[in-house]
Structures are given as C-alpha cells and as structure tokens.
Amino acid sequence: MSQNHNITDETIDSIPKVFVVGAGIRGRKHLTLEAITYLRKVPVVLFFPTKSISSQWLEENIEVIKCESLLPLYEDGSVDTDNYNRIAKKILVTAQKHGSVTVLIPGHPKVGVSWIQDLEKYEYDTEIELKVIDGISSFDTMLTDLRRDPLEQGAVVIDANRMLLYRLNLDPRMDYYIYHVCSVGTSRTHVSNPSLDNRLDLLKSWLLRSFPSDHEVTLVQSDIISGDRSAVETCLLKELEKLASSITFATSLFIRGVQPSFESLDKEFLAMVKQN
Ligand SMILES: C[S@@+](CC[C@H](N)C(=O)[O-])C[C@H]1O[C@@H](n2cnc3c(N)ncnc32)[C@H](O)[C@@H]1O
Questions:
Q1: Is there a domain that residue 275 lies in?
Q2: Is the C-beta atom of 218 inside 6 A of ligand 1?
Q3: 204 pocket-lining for ligand 1 (C-beta < 6 Å)
Q4: Number of folded domains that form the chain
Q5: Average of pLDDT values for 12-25?
Q6: Ligand 1 within 6 A of 111 CB?
Q7: What confidence score (pLDDT) does residue 21 get?
C-alpha cells in the first residue's frame, strides 16, 4: 500500500473524479442509460468522435455541458505508449482543473485499453478517484457477427503481440479471438496505413504450429453504425497475408476451434456425469 492511501474522508471528497465510460461499438444506439448519466454528471466530457457521436450531438441531444475530442492526441505513426501517455496526462490535467471528467471511449473500457492502467496508477497514488462504466465490447459484437457462443468449444481472447512475445502455446480445439492484428511486431500506430510494418508473416508462422495450414481464419470488423453490415472476410491460414489490405485498427482475427475427437473424451468423467 502506498502511504498516500492513509487519508481522511474529507480529503477523499477533494480528489478529482474520473469516470471512464464505454460507448459500445455500434454508435450512439449502444450508449447505455448508465453511460448517459455519467455524460451529464460532469463539466467536461473527453471523447473519441465516431460517425454517429459528435460534439454537436452530445451537446444538443445528451445535454453534455462541454466536450473535447481526444483524437488529436492519438498521432498517426506515433509509438503507442507515447499516444497513451498523452491521453492519460490530458485526462489527469482535465480532472484536476474541473474536479471531475467523463471519458467516453469505444467498446468496453476494460478490453484492450492500455492507458487505463496509467489511470489506475494515478488512482493508487490518490491523484484521482477512478470509476469504470461498462460498455458493449467488440468481443460481444463479434459473437453476434460470427454467430458463435464462446462457451460452445471454449474461447481464448488474446493480443497478437503478447502471444508472439511469450510464445504462448495454443490449443487448436478452442476458438481464438486475436486482437490488435493491425500492429503485429511493431509499437507504431499506423492508423492510416495499418499494413506498414505489420508482420502478419510472424503471426502466421506461430499459428501454423497449432492449426492446419488449410484451416479457415476470419477477419471481423463489427459494423459501427447499424450492426447489419459487419465486414467478415475469410481465407486459409496459409494465405493469411491476403487479409493485409482489409486490416484496420478495428479488425480482429477469429479462428474457429477444431472439433475435439471422440477419443480425447475423458470416459471416466463422462460416466461420472451421466451417473450423477
Ligand atoms: C485498443 S483495442 C479496444 C477495444 C475496445 N475497448 C472494445 O471493447 O472493443 C482495439 C482492438 O479492438 C478490436 N476491435 C475494435 N473495434 C472492433 C470492431 N468493430 N470489430 C472487431 N474488432 C474490433 C481490434 O482487435 C482492435 O485492434
């Protein structure tokens, strides 16, 4: 425990509050009532504009007092951690200036948002009080787009770079949802041209250790507006690079698990389940 945690109730009241709110994936219709409550609660909202969520819309329709885009802090081609540090710092400074701030971000705040960890550190050091409000994540929308239940065969949600960095062994009997296939082997955020520096060849080699080369892989981009026109593109694993030109910062790679064989059943366990 940090010694800063030894504080009184009075000082807690003066700590700036940061509410990080998930906006969901499919535009304004994914905003929850809880999200809207937190958008109205604060003097300033920081957010990432999307096709259907603009400053004007937030101010005129959701009665947000004032909003500011975080997009200029996310520089095309920058090292990812530089972008994240800029964003976390901006949130901290805004909260200190106004007493509270709501940050509206795509999807669910606890799915793949690295700078939340910086905010958690600020919270640990009692510089802010942090609250995270759930949003619908891309994992949720992909299940609908792919018509797949993650419990059917078991599923692994994993970051592409982490898988390669730790040479994580894969179990091909489970489904894989691979995140951040836009920046394999690079820390650069080439948002306007994700195929730059993207080492799909390394990802393919690692996947080929566990999956057959003619196994189908699917690139998914859940549609952000209607949910009706999600982009889903399939190819064989051995041709993974074919997907390069379709990859964006909002695509994930899905690999359906291979059906386990009857021989791999634990017969004793099966008998026990049937008996009880
Ligand atoms: C920084 S993470 C943010 C995820 C977000 N917080 C969420 O809850 O979906 C970005 C990664 O999420 C995945 N992603 C984001 N939007 C997506 C979408 N519309 N369809 C499929 N995957 C998406 C991609 O793997 C992308 O590289």
A1: no
A2: no
A3: no
A4: 2
A5: 90
A6: yes
A7: 98
Where in the sequence is the domain holding 112, given as residue range(s)? Answer: 3-136
206 part of a folded domain: yes
Residue bearing the CA closest to ligand 1, atom 15: 250
DSSP 79: B
Give whole-number Cα distances, 123 to 84, 181, 244, in Å.
16, 31, 39
Give the position of tokens 């802010």. 128
Distance of alpha carbon 94 from alpha carbon 160, whole angstroms:
33
Is the minimum distance from the CB of 112 to ligand 1 under 6 angstroms?
yes
Residue 141 CA to ligand 1 center (angstroms) comes to 10
State whether 45 and 132 are in the same domain. yes
Residue 107 has pLDDT above 70, yes or no: yes
pTM for this entry? 0.92
273 inside domain: no
pLDDT tens-digit readout, 210-268: 999 999 999 999 986 655 667 789 999 999 999 999 999 999 999 999 999 989 899 99
Neighbours of 165 (CB within 10 A): 10
Query: 261 C-alpha vs ligand 1 centroid, how far in Å?
Result: 33
Give 47 Cα–ligand 1 centroid separation in angstroms. Answer: 16
CA 73 from centroid of its chain's CA atoms = 18
3-state secondary structure (DSSP) of residue 131 = strand
Ligand 1 lined by 221 (C-beta under 6 Å): yes
- Which of 179, 180, 220 for a ligand 1 pocket mutation test, highest count of atoms within 8 Å of Cβ? 179
Same domain, 56 and 74: yes
